[in-house]
Structures are given as C-alpha cells and as structure tokens.
Design goal:
By secondary structure, this protein is α+β, with helices and mostly antiparallel strands. The strands form 8 sheets. It has a 7-stranded mixed β-sheet, sandwiched between helices. A hairpin with a 4-residue loop joins strand 10 and strand 11. The relative contact order is 0.13.
C-alpha cells in the first residue's frame, strides 16, 4: 500500500488529494460549486453537490494509480453546516452553512433555556449563529414539518462518510462545533439535547479522529473508483485537520491561518475554557487533547478588499514589495479589520473597519501596509487571550494565502515576538485528513508519529526584538480604539 487520500469538503469546492505515505502530493483534484443565498444573511448548499464533487475528484485520482495501492482515506471540511436526512437517507432541505446568520433570535433562546454559564461549562463556548445547535432550533421553529421528518442529523463531511460507507458517524473535533457535545467528556450532552428538544438517537456515533469509522461500500466504489473495503477514518473539522497537516499536534505548538478569515490555533492537554467566550475550545484531532482557537473575521479578506478598490492592477507580490519599504506603523496609520464584524476578542457583529490616523501624507501603499498590520494586531489579540489562559506558544506555523507573503510572515513574527515557520506542504486540511486515514488503516501508529515523520519545515522567520518593541507601541493604541468606538458602532448599525 503506497497511497493515502485526504478529502476536504469546503464551502466553495471540494478538494481531494492523493499522497504517498511520506506526505508528498501525487495528484490533486478540485471541483467547485456555489453557495445559495435565498435571503440576505442566509447561506445554503445542496449536499448532492458535495457528493458529486467527491465522486468526480476521486475518479480523477483513482485513474492515475492502481486503486488497490490506496491504504486509507480521511475526511475534513467546513464545520457546523447542518444536514438533515429522512428515514430513507434523502436530504430534507438544503444544508444551512456555517456562515449563515439567520439564527440570532435562536441563539438568545438557547442561552435563556440553558443559561450562558452552563452552556459554556458543557460545550466550552457561548452560543453563536455559526454553530449547528441554533440552526436546529431554527428549523424546529420555522420548518416544523422538516424537523419532524428528520431521522438523522449530520455535518458536511459526515454526509460524505455516509455516502462512502453507509455509516452514521462523526468525530469529536467537528462534533464540538455543533454545540451539542460535552467537550470535556467528548460525548453528546444529554442535558443540552433534552433542553433544546433534540432526540439524541438522531445524532451520529462519535469517534476519535484517527479511528476507523467504516469502509467504502461496493456502491461507492463503483461511483468513485476507490477499492471496496477501503478504511475511512473519523477525520476532522477543517482547522483541526489543518493542524495535523502542519504538525501542530501537541502543547507548545500553534498555527496561524491568514485566509479569508484568520485563525490562531493552539492544542492543549486539557479542556481550557475562556469564561468570557472570546475564543473557541474544541476537541482536537489527537485523541484526548483539545484546542483553543481565536478567529479574526476579515484577515486576507481585508487585503483582498483593499487591493480590489485601490490597487486592482497590482499583484500581491508588487504590493508586498512596495509595503516592505515603508516603516513599521505605516507612518502613524492604524487599520481596524472589522469589515465583517468581529469574533475574537469582541464578539461584536456591529463592529466595522476603520482607518485611524489618516493624513495627506499617506498613499495607497501606506494604507495597504496598515491593513496587513491591523490584521496582525487582530491576530495578536487572539494570542494575548491564549497567553492569558496560560497557553504557552513557542512554536508557531503559518499557512493560508497570506502566509505566502514574506512581509506578512515577518510582520506576524515580529508582532507576536515568536519565530514563525512555513511548511513544505501547503495542503493543510487535506494532508491532515490523509494522515488520519493512515492512522485508521494502520500505516502510522499515532498522529504524533506521523506528523514527526512526514511534516517538513520549509523555512523559519526569526522574530526581531527591536521590531517587536516598535510594533508594541502601535498595538497598544490599536487595543485602545475599539472600546472608544463600540457604542458608536452599534449606533451606526441601527440607522
């Protein structure tokens, strides 16, 4: 057996990657699909589109090698997205996605029923519109006929597992984001489910991420080209899988993602919970470990937005080169990256983006650098909370589109005051899913063993103490701005 497959069921498309057992990419296939927005703030997709994309991408991979040389398969993908099935496994309604914002009222109802402190105590997180529980409550209230028809409740990647193996299963990292799991005990919470009127028998069995959850059926083998009986691992939610794919599997390690949104992710040996709910605590993909994760809503999105409106004919490389010649602090210009509201540390959907200190001296490159610095400060907010929770980070990896920028990498290293490394593979979640598939198939004895053996560092950016001290001056001002503006953000949004 020479190969492993990782499938990443994303929001804009599904990517399936064929790796050898040393973690090298042999082939990769992607099929895109479209998110539907039937109303403002709603976001839905048809699970049939995911399955069609999986079949097409797997066919593309299995045609390139002998399928019987594939040892195992792992799944990753978008978290929180709700899939409802009837008794015949037919999809009842389009999936309500992680980014759907229709459930503000249901979030308040959940907190009124269970109590905010109790909810955080059990599920490790405050209720959010993105989580699955509020989506279920919304369906129960607004589509009672669909709720009554529901026989099975799944998440995106777990629907694909069902189609591949015929098994109703999930794993702890993705289940954590449903807000129905007792995160400390790594099992469904009877108290939460009964409080919300959710029949626990409709929930899938919960596994650890590297466990065997089923095998490819004859029917699925015919549709995908996979060998019948191929082991399928529990897999992990996208960030938990990406952590494995970057070798971030134990305490002391962490990673930052600068994608459309930004994430700071750190594993822990016990469930460390922020009582203020500013960061998420979920089960990790390594058995009997957890992770804490802070989220910046508009990370790469901020630079993409600014490039589109101010520098549409410049490449990111050209913007990097120009910005690198400017001083730290962008000539006393600070950007607050709240284009889409904010999650960490403010949990404020009213917050909006701000340029502070703008003068006639500044040009579009000062503003572009300020955008990168502001996103870095927002990610440092996440780091500050982790430090306040006594989560030490001595080893920081970087991934995502923004991670390809040498300037942004150096900037984050200097803002954090920690060396930052980039990995040889940028496959992240797909590689993590494949590693978990290898564990389920017995190729690796543990997630840690696999990470140490096959995840390789490309380069390390060394933090400058002098630059860190200079950034701290601006970061202090940045932190003071939001409290001064919070009330006016709400007033502006109410007009």
């Amino acid at each position: 057996m020479n190969y492993l497959i990782g499938i990443d069921v994303g929001t804009s498309g599904t990517k399936s990657v064929l790796f050898d057992t040393e973690g090298r990419v042999i082939a990769s296939e992607t099929v895109e699909y479209y998110m539907q927005q039937p109303r403002n703030g709603w976001a839905e997709e048809d699970p049939a589109d995911w399955w069609d994309a999986v079949c097409k991408t797997l066919k593309g991979l299995t045609e390139k090698v002998n399928p019987h040389d594939i040892a195992g398969l792992g799944l990753s993908g978008q978290m929180h997205s709700l899939v409802l099935l009837d008794k015949e496994n037919e999809v009842i309604r389009p999936s309500i996605l992680w980014c759907d914002q229709r459930t503000h009222e249901e979030c308040r109802e959940i907190e009124n029923i269970l109590g905010r402190e109790k909810l955080i105590e059990i599920t490790a997180n405050p209720t959010l519109t993105g989580f699955t529980a509020s989506k279920l409550v919304w369906v129960k209230k607004h589509e009672p006929e669909n709720f009554e028809r529901t026989a099975h409740i799944l998440l995106a990647k777990d629907y694909i597992r069902l189609m591949l193996t015929g098994e109703y299963a999930t794993e702890v990292s993705d289940a954590s984001g449903m807000q129905l799991l007792d995160v400390g005990r790594r099992c469904w919470s009877r108290e939460v489910c009964e409080g919300l009127g959710i029949d626990m028998s409709k929930l899938p069995r919960v596994y650890e991420s590297p466990e065997l959850t089923g095998r490819v059926t004859k029917k699925a083998a015919a549709l995908t080209g996979l060998p019948e009986g191929l082991p399928v691992a529990g897999g992990a939610g996208d960030n938990a899988a990406a952590a494995v794919g970057m070798g971030v599997w134990c305490e002391g390690k962490a990673f930052t993602t600068v994608g459309t949104s930004g994430v700071v992710f750190a594993p822990t040996d016990s469930p460390v919970i922020d009582p203020l709910g500013r960061v998420h605590t979920f089960c990790a993909a390594v058995p009997h470990t957890w992770h804490v994760m802070g989220v910046t809503q508009a990370a790469g999105l901020s630079l993409n937005w600014f490039r589109r409106i101010a520098l549409p004919h410049k490449s990111y490389r050209e913007i990097d080169e120009k910005c690198a010649g400017l001083p730290i602090g962008s000539e006393r210009l600070i950007y607050m990256p709240y284009l889409m509201g904010e999650r960490t540390p403010h949990l404020d959907s009213d917050a909006r983006g701000v340029f502070f200190g703008l003068s006639a001296l500044h040009n579009e490159y000062h503003m572009a650098r300020a955008v990168m610095e502001g996103v870095s400060f927002s990610l440092n907010d996440c780091m500050e909370i982790l430090r306040g929770m006594n989560i030490g980070v001595s080893d920081m990896a970087l991934c995502g589109g923004g991670g390809k920028s040498d300037l942004w990498c150096q900037m984050l290293s200097d803002v954090y005051g920690v060396n930052v490394k980039r990995m040889e593979s940028d496959e992240g979640a797909a590689l993590g899913a494949a590693i978990l598939g290898g564990c389920a198939a017995g190729v690796y004895s543990s997630v840690g063993e696999a990470c140490e053996a096959i995840v390789r560092v490309k380069n390390v950016t060394v933090s400058s103490p002098d630059a860190h001290a200079e950034y701290e001056k601006y970061y202090g001002i940045y932190k003071s701005l939001y409290p001064c503006m919070r009330e006016n953000f709400a007033r502006l949004n109410s007009i």
